Amino acid sequence: PLPAVERDRPAPGAERSPAPPATAATLYPRLLNEQGQDFWRNGPWDTRAFSRSLAGELLFTTVVDQGRELRVYSVPGVRGGRIQGVIQIVAPLEPTRTALDELTRTLLILVPIALALAALGGAFLTGRALQPIREITRAAMRIEPQNLSARVPEEGKDELAQLAGVLNGML
User: Fold this and answer.
1) What is the CA radius of gyration of the chain?
2) Tally: H helices and E strands in the chain
3) Pairing relation of β-strands 59-65 and 4-7?
4) How far is Cα 102 from Cα 28, in angstroms, rounded to an integer?
5) Which helix (H) or strand (E) holds 97?
6) How far apart are CA 132 and CA 125, in angstroms?
7) 51, 14 Cβ separation under 8 angstroms
8) Regarding predicted confidence, which is higher, 39 or 151?
């Protein structure tokens, strides 16, 4: 099953080392024993996620530490078929949010440009596709009862050329 996704806040007064730098792209793991302590005597990044992982759940949570959002992945540490502790890996969300903001700005600029180009291209291609019909219409309008010698131009071998041929045959 996929890990649960939820938004948790750390328990008040939870001891931990300072959060990773906001621009860091590395992960910060903690290997926690059943009492919630790692080798450096730091507590879990997310105490509720720690408890749930100790019960066997894999989950992602988001915590706020020193004003920054951090993504915490908590997974039970199983050894010999028994959960011996929890592994929590934390990564700052700021680089992800920055990348998403840049992507949004880029799309807000490029999508209208692409739509305008598509509209211009569509208008151009439609004009080219309808040009033979306009020529047949103009030629047919020149045909009058006094001047039945006028003909519709038959260019090409497509359906429009066949239509021009039929119109000319009727005259």
Assistant:
1) 36
2) 3, 5
3) parallel
4) 25
5) helix 94-142
6) 13
7) no
8) 151
The pair of three-digit structure tokens given for residue 17, joined into one six-digit string: 């080392």
CA distance 4 to 42: 25
Tokens of 93: 């969300």
Residue with tokens 């005259």: 171
Helix (H, G, I), strand (E, B) or coil at 46: coil
CA-based nearest residue to 92, from 12, 42, 22: 22
pLDDT band per the 50, 70, 90 thresholds, residue 105 = very high
Residue 136 backbone zone (phi > 0: left; psi -120 to 50: alpha; other: beta): alpha
CA of 77: how far to CAs of 50, 52, 73, 124, in Å?
Answer: 11, 12, 12, 63
Residue with tokens 């050894």: 79
Among 78-82, 117-121, 155-159, 166-170, name the most confident range.
Answer: 117-121
Report the C-alpha gap between 32 and 76 in whole angstroms.
9
